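pinned: reference chain
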Amino acid sequence: MERPSKPYVLLDRDGTVIVEKNYLADPDGVELLPGAVEGLRLLLAAGYGLVLITNQSGVGRGYFTLEDLGRVNQRLEQMLAEAGIRLEGIYICPHAPEQDCECRKPKPKLAIDAAAELGFDLQQAWMIGDKSADVDLARNAGTRAVLVRTGYGRKTEAAGVVADYVAEDLSAAAARILR
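pinned: its structure tokens
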């Protein structure tokens, strides 16, 4: 009998884990949000796997290259590693919205790919993010959604986007998931 996989949390990057900086192309600009390290540590300690799912239309718009994006994500992973945190995957949509790809949030392709590659059940997973695309991704992928009030989260909440839960930051989101 196969043992059930561990649970997973899918995370938006900008405005959820790191400070929102439009079209971040410089690794020196990576800045962890308050509560991010604490929240991720809580989830890891409880046995959750962590996956980043991020739209990066700056590549498709020609604002920066995939190599630039790779350096930014490498810096993020380095900063997290220094805090004892490891992401099990980073899934990226590099397309501009008008390219009508299959991987751009809120479409579920990246979440489905992560679940298939890492062997977890999306119905047992959570999505944490600050935009309607994150909440809608959760709906489209069959996961539960936590909207954080960091990044664009307050504006998203004020616009009437309804998630399963709303939390001040990643630390509060993690505490809510673990309740």
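why pinned: The two ends are 29 Å apart (CA to CA). The first helix runs from residue 36 to 45.
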